[in-house]
Design a protein that fits this description.
With 369 residues, the protein is mainly alpha-helical. The protein is built from 17 helices and three strands. It holds the Pfam family Hyccin.
């Protein structure tokens, strides 16, 4: 399976520590007017763009300012700095802005229904969307899915008709983009989803803290926490079957209670929902927003970074999104989140599953007839 889209610039794949130092120093000087004082290690760094991305103290300070109740307004200086920094067209500085996308998108989506000015956040999100729209040039991102109905190009065939083996069976991973000058409620999920796709394209450069922030916001968006829905509850195959395929008989119920196990499970879910429905931050999760989020979580679970904290946060987010998919009875989301959760459990399980086709004892005698 191959993905068809434009090849991104190599500077996105490997962060440059030497280029654009003058731009980066100018950006740091403008940031010092907003967040004074800045860490000395940042102002004296020989690689200012790299330090902007990886300075943990600066990241906490910016995150703290973004979480303030009045952040996100059109006159917010920090939002203006993030917008101007991304518009510098320098890939390294753009990556610095993308590092804060999880908290920007998370706060924006959580506050979108509060009827307060979020023009600062919207300007940043629209800048990311416009950048990706220009880069794609009106073309969708497609995936070549193998089709077993076509003959393989590596085997001979006696068919005299047209050889369909070279025809592509394309599936659209991300549709073509239309320019947008404002964030309307009907386009909000698409615009943020595209911004997350851009984040995913540079995720190998992102600090672990940024990825963990994204995982935490996924839990908030889903509305289910791990203490409400345990790992065993989510991953148990019998429970999933009873929840998704309930029948009135409920053969697995208690004999004397008159209540089936399926009804008990639904009751458990509904009792948790009373609390979660009132939780601030729970949002609609259409596929155009959920799909890029799952791709990011997939990297966090199976990526090359060996961080136990990151993998646990990604697994917790996967559980929450899976519980949300079950609640919404969304088959596409159930399949995607369930598969991601299963893969995540396999990645964290050190004991390999039993394979009946594997010969485990090579010293035993082979009996022949």
């Amino acid at each position: 399976m191959s993905v068809h889209h434009h090849t991104r610039d190599s500077s996105i794949i490997e962060f440059s520590k030497t280029d654009s130092n003058e731009k980066a120093k100018s950006v740091i000087e403008s940031l010092a007017l907003i967040l004074d004082p800045l860490p000395e290690s940042l102002t004296t760094s020989d690689t200012p763009a790299f330090s902007l991305l990886h300075d943990s103290h600066l990241a906490k300070t910016i995150s703290s300012h973004l979480k303030q109740p009045d952040s996100g307004a059109g006159d917010n200086n920090l939002c203006r700095w993030l917008y101007d920094t991304f518009q510098s067209s320098d890939p390294n500085l753009q990556t610095v802005v993308l590092r804060f996308l999880p908290i920007i998108a998370g706060l924006y989506l959580s506050r979108a229904g509060l009827r307060k000015s979020l023009a600062g956040f919207e300007a940043i999100l629209l800048a990311l969307y416009a950048h990706e729209t220009t880069f794609r040039g009106g073309q969708p991102i497609t995936v070549n899915v193998p089709d077993l109905s076509h003959c393989s190009i590596y085997h001979e065939t006696r068919a005299t008709g047209k050889n369909n083996s070279t025809e592509l069976n394309l599936a659209i991973l991300s549709p073509s983009l239309e320019p947008h000058g404002t964030v309307r409620s009907t386009k909000r999920a698409r615009i943020i989803g595209v911004a997350l796709e851009l984040y995913h394209s540079r995720i190998s450069l992102m600090p672990i803290a940024s990825k963990i922030e994204f995982c935490e916001f996924c839990v908030i968006w889903a509305g289910y926490e791990n203490e409400g829905i345990s790992s065993e509850f989510i991953t148990n195959e019998n429970v999933k079957e009873k929840y998704l395929c309930q029948d009135g008989g409920g053969g697995g119920g208690n004999a004397g209670s008159g209540t089936s196990s399926g009804d008990e499970i639904v009751g458990l879910i509904e009792s948790k929902e009373d609390k979660y429905e009132r939780k601030e931050g729970r949002i609609p999760l259409p596929w155009e927003l959920l799909q890029p989020a799952l791709r990011i979580l997939g990297h966090c679970l199976m990526g090359p970074v060996e961080s136990k904290e990151l993998k646990e946060a990604a697994l917790a987010a996967s559980r929450s999104l899976y519980a949300r998919a079950l609640h919404d009875v969304n088959p596409q989301a159930i399949l995607a989140t369930g598969s991601l959760l299963r893969i995540g459990n396999m990645a964290t399980n050190t004991a390999p599953e039993f394979d009946p086709t594997e010969i485990s004892d090579f010293n035993s005698r082979i009996i022949t007839l």
